[in-house]
């Protein structure tokens, strides 16, 4: 079998499951990331080892495993990141959160940033790649996730540091930061029926779900982190559940933040909130 034949075969086999467009996209990712073959390149014959890999890969995809876990690679903001089931697969809306931060803080600024619940490290790594003068840090409860984040930093040669900590139990933002950013767990169990089966079956639950009776749990904690960890005038950026972003906005207003605004993503869903710590509101360390 040749690379072009395999491309067609994967697309054809996945079409009943994913549809025409997504099956072609998944096939492209598999061929590029696992076989080094790009559409338009001269086809080549697969080795015996590659044919075995193609068979196991297709079986995993047909079983519903996300292509990023199959290839071990996720594209995010121009970076190729290692991912595995210890971390969430970075989403396009998280790229939009990064873009918002970059819009607010141009290339002539020097900023200190902490990402709480960093997972693969996608947010601080993307910020560091675009703003080399910044100091970026990530914190996560999961040591397995931190191993992935640290490997990504090494592979990309980016000076982002990562540390273990529990945002619900301790202060993550020690010192004074210009920016705190987080994509916290925000899905109550009652919304499981609205989620893709592949997400439910393969991605880490601790990074997705929040107690049904307290869906704003992590946002309240982040509001407190901001008062202790932000410089006066510093900003807190969060990704939110599209169904309760207005409640998150009100929470930050009630917590004493100023210029609290929310933003829609490219799918026209309310998915991001930014809050600013007023002058004089920062707690003395």
Automatic annotation (TrEMBL):
It catalyses: L-glutaminyl-[peptide chain release factor] + S-adenosyl-L-methionine = N(5)-methyl-L-glutaminyl-[peptide chain release factor] + S-adenosyl-L-homocysteine + H(+). Coiled coil: none annotated. It comes from the Bacteria. Keywords: Methyltransferase, S-adenosyl-L-methionine, Transferase. Residues 105-188 form the Methyltransferase small domain. Transmembrane segments: none annotated. GO terms for biological process: methylation. GO terms for molecular function: nucleic acid binding; peptide chain release factor N(5)-glutamine methyltransferase activity. It is an enzyme of class 2 (transferase). Residues 20-72 form the Release factor glutamine methyltransferase N-terminal domain. CDD domains: AdoMet_MTases. Its EC number is 2.1.1.297. It holds the Pfam family MTS. This is peptide chain release factor N(5)-glutamine methyltransferase.
């Amino acid at each position: 079998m040749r690379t072009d034949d395999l491309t067609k075969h994967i697309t054809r086999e996945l079409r009943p499951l994913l549809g025409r467009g997504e099956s072609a996209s998944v096939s492209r990712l598999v061929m590029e990331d696992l076989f080094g073959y790009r559409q338009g390149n001269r086809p080549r014959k697969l080795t015996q080892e590659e044919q075995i890999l193609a068979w196991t890969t297709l079986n995993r995809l047909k079983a519903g495993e996300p292509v990023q876990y199959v290839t071990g690679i996720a594209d995010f903001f121009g970076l190729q990141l290692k991912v595995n089931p210890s971390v969430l697969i970075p989403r396009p809306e998280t790229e939009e959160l990064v873009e918002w931060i970059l819009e607010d803080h141009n290339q002539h600024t020097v900023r200190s940033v902490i990402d709480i619940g960093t997972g693969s490290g996608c947010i601080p790594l993307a910020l560091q790649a675009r703003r080399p003068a910044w100091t970026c840090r990530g914190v996560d409860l999961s040591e397995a996730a931190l191993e992935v984040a640290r490997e990504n930093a090494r592979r990309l040669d980016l000076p982002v540091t990562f540390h273990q900590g529990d945002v619900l139990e301790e202060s993550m933002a020690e010192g004074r930061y210009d920016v705190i950013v987080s994509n916290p767990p925000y899905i109550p169990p009652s919304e499981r029926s609205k989620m893709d089966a592949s997400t439910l079956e393969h991605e880490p639950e601790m990074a997705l779900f929040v107690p049904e009776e307290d869906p704003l749990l992590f946002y309240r904690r982040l509001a407190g982190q901001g008062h202790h960890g932000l410089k006066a005038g510093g900003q807190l950026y969060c990704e939110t559940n599209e169904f309760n972003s207005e409640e998150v906005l009100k929470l930050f207003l009630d917590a004493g933040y100023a210029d609290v605004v929310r933003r829609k993503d490219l799918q026209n869903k309310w998915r991001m909130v930014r809050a600013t710590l007023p002058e004089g509101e920062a707690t003395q360390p």
